[in-house]
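Q: Could you fold this chain for me?
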Amino acid sequence: MTSASASGRPAYELRSRQRGPSDLLLEVWQAPSAATPELRQPRRIAGLGGHKLLLAEGAVLRRLNTGKVSLARLRKGESRRDGLPEELALTMGLLFKLLAPMRNVTAMDNCARGIEAMAREEAAYWLGMAMHRKNPRRVLAALRLLLSAG
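A: Sure. Below is the predicted structure, expressed as structure tokens.
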């Protein structure tokens, strides 16, 4: 049991897999814990990889550095799991969900900067809306519109 699950808080992890040179896949997962009794097995929140991850690499690395998570020394074919603090998991999950379908580099950069500037509660609100609504695409489209306009 992780320290998060032992303390009654939700538990999250970052799963990273080096698929090839310059091809890293990052995924945020929620692990079962005392705070989430309905969760029997890990649930994938979001993932980002390949060239889209390269475009948002600066924002992702800045966020991971604040959580003391390093992606160094992953070789091709290797995978790793690192525990994530709740705040970092919320913002990374939202960032990955938001950027995955996007193509416009400028809009992606604006969205990444907007998520970086969000408070923990705001990121939790938007991620919850994107995960539990009937039409999550509409929620994400609205957030993209709000963030890419700035």
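A (continued): The helical segments are 3-6, 50-55, 57-66, 86-99, 105-117, 120-132, 136-148.
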